[in-house]
Every structure is written in C-alpha cells, then in structure tokens.
Amino acid sequence: MLPESTPELQALIERIRAASAAGTPLAITGHGSKAFLGGVPEGEPLSTLALQGISSYEPTELVVTARAGTPLAELEATLAAQGQCLPFEPPRLPGADGQAAGTVGGMVAAGLAGPARATAGSVRDYVLGATVVNGRGELLSFGGQVMKNVAGYDLARLLAGSMGELGLIAEVSLKVLPEPPASATLHFSCDEATALERLNRWAGRPLPLSASAWWAGSLLLRLSGARAAVAAAQAALAAEAGGEPVDPAQAGPFWTGLRDQRDEYFEQADAALRAGRAALWRMSLPSTAAPVAGLRGEQLIEWGGAQRWWLSEAPAATVRAAATRLGGHAQLWRSADPAVRAEAGRAPLGPVLMRLHRQVKAAFDPAGVLSPGRLITA
After folding, report:
1. What global pTM score does this model have?
2. Coiled coil located at which positions (predicted)?
C-alpha cells in the first residue's frame, strides 16, 4: 500500500479534503489522453503525474504494482524486458501533445482494452488491488497482490471504468502474463455478413484466436499461442476459407495502430471529425448480432463482432436505437460538435441502474466533487 506520508500523495489528499469541504469540483487527470471520453471534464484539474514509479514487480509471481501517474509505456517496457505483458492490450491514445500516451491510473479509470479484449478479457479482469483516495480525502486499500482474493465483493475492480468518479487511483496491482511465443495474421476477402458468420463459427472451435478486425471487405484474424497450435490453425483456416498470411512486418504495426486508434480507419474518422461532418460511435453488441441495419456510415468491426465502430452523421437517437434493436448499446466516442457531446457524451441509464450508480457514488464521494458528470447523465 502506498503510504499516506508520501509528500506527493499527501498533497493530493489535502486538495481533495479541501475541495470536499468547499464543494469545489475536481477533474482528475493524467496525460489527458482520454479527455474526450464521457461528459466534458468539470472542475479544477487534479493531476496524478506526481505519483510515478513501479512500486514492486515479481515476474515469477506474474504481479506488478505501479503508481497511477506512471506512463503506460514505461510499465509495458518493464514487462517486455521479462517477456511478459498486459494481455488486454490497453490503448495508448494521443495525449495533449498529440503523441501516444496514457498512464496506469488512466488505463484503469477508463477501463479500455485493445484488440485482444474478446479473448484475453478486460482491464477489470487483471486488477488485483488498488489504493485510492475517496471523496472525503481518505486513503483506502482494496484487494492485494495475490491472484486469489475472494473476501467479499472485489471493490478494486469497481474502479475499472469509473472515470475518476469514485476516487483518485493512487496505486494499482495488476496480474500480468507471459507474451505468446508465436503469432500469425491471416487476411480474408469477404463481406460483413460472411465475416460475422465466420468469426462466430471459429470462436466455437479450439483455435488460438487473439484478435479480429473487419472493414471495407477485408477481415484480418490474429492467431497467438504455442507455435504448433498457431501453425496448425493457420494451415486449417487457409485451406478452409482461403486465408492469406500477412507479413509480420506489416501485421505488427497494423494491430498496434488499431490498438492505439492510429490505423487507416481511425485516421479517416479523425479527418471527418475535424471537418465537422460526423461523429464516431462505439457499439457494444452480442457477437452473434446481425449486421446493423438502417444506419449509414463507415463501420469497423472488432472483438469477433462484439465491438462495432460507426462513423456516421446520423442523430444520436438513431444510432442508439440501431444498437438497442440488436441487444446492445452505443457510446459516443468522439464528436467535434460540443452540443453533440453535451447531449450524448455520457451514458444514459435506466432508473434502477441510475439509483445504484448514485448509491455507489455517494458512498465513495458524498460531496460529489470528484469528476462530476463525467460518466453518466444527471
């Protein structure tokens, strides 16, 4: 546990205590690489960047503990030196300076995962413990540094995706895994319906699938695992569906670009957003859901069909209705129009979920000063 006596942490605790007493909102931030997510940040900036460093790392135990302001790139470089990784492939989105960025605290608070999410799991699945400062300025510790921790509800994992509304994450312990010994990428030419059918069929077979992406008639499939398993799956899928191998020198940068939203699809989306012509939506759907009907725009499909990106000029209500019809929901990802973000940037919740959210928020932050309105509509 990070000691309260640490000067950098004590300063943050005092800021939160003063803000709580005065009712002054605080906007928790790191590199600012996810400032576009959710509602517009409200309040005085409260940076975690003073909390840096890897507190402990036990490669043989597959556990690492790092402070919130530690750059994600630094953590992943440390793991890579030991042949290990964060299996959920957290994105390094552009920070305030336009360069790929991200901190450990922001990674957990945003709860984002990359191309491997469908097979490796989410950020929440790898959080073992956390030290957090709640809205009262109290230092709390949840979980631990062991993989088996079953004493009651795992509050540390509740922080994943909370966007700073429950507290300032000061330190987090994460489960890590060895990097896969082999990887291969196959390319298939097919339409959307065929891609979805294949992805769902292949997901039911013992194949070492680790990522997929479909856009504009091209399906890319990544295999990762033991060399023999990858080679056998590559041969089987090539024979079955005509999959062509992609040069590793091209495949690696493609998956990294997709993870960090710097590939061709997202570059085109950025251009359209700058021109003010459209908004970028992230749809979360059952992987077995049919193609989205009645929506115009450019689509990118990931996670075996469970994550579908839409660049569209359609109104928010139209996009959300299309997702609801298929048993999912749509989240506004980016829009250059402040009015669109103000209307649709935060998640709409039903009365039951809204009541639960408010109860949890009140327990952690009774004065409501931490990142207010960032996560949901009022």
Report:
1. 0.93
2. none
Pairing of strands 307-312, 298-302: antiparallel
The three-class DSSP label of residue 366 is: coil
* Confidence check: pLDDT of 73 > 90: yes
Tokens 């896969």 found at: 180
The Cα–Cα gap between 378 and 375 comes to: 9
pLDDT of 377: 55
Right CATH for 182-259 from 1.20.120, 3.40.50, 1.10.155, 3.30.70: 3.30.70
CATH of domain 7-178: 3.30.465.10
Q: What is the dihedral of CA 197, 218, 203, 246, to 10 degrees?
A: 150
SS3 294: coil
Residue type, 168: L
- CATH number for region 264-344: 3.30.70
Residue 248 DSSP symbol: H
Listed residue (243, 263, 244, 238) closest to 253, CA to CA: 263
Tokens for 255? Answer: 């998956």
Contact present, 110 and 161 (Cβ < 8 Å): yes
264-344 matches 7-178 in CATH topology = no
DSSP 247: P
Q: Find, among 102, 63, 97, 101, the residue nearest to 82 by Cα.
A: 63
Task: Say if residues 262 and 115 touch (Cβ distance below 8 Å).
Answer: no
The β-bridge relationship of strands 139-143 and 54-58 is unpaired
Nearest Cα neighbor of 1 from 143, 138, 99 is 143
pLDDT for res 22: 97
Residue 247 pLDDT more than 60?
yes
Domain range list for the chain? 7-178, 182-259, 264-344
Quote the CA–CA distance of 365 and 372 in Å, as a whole number. 10
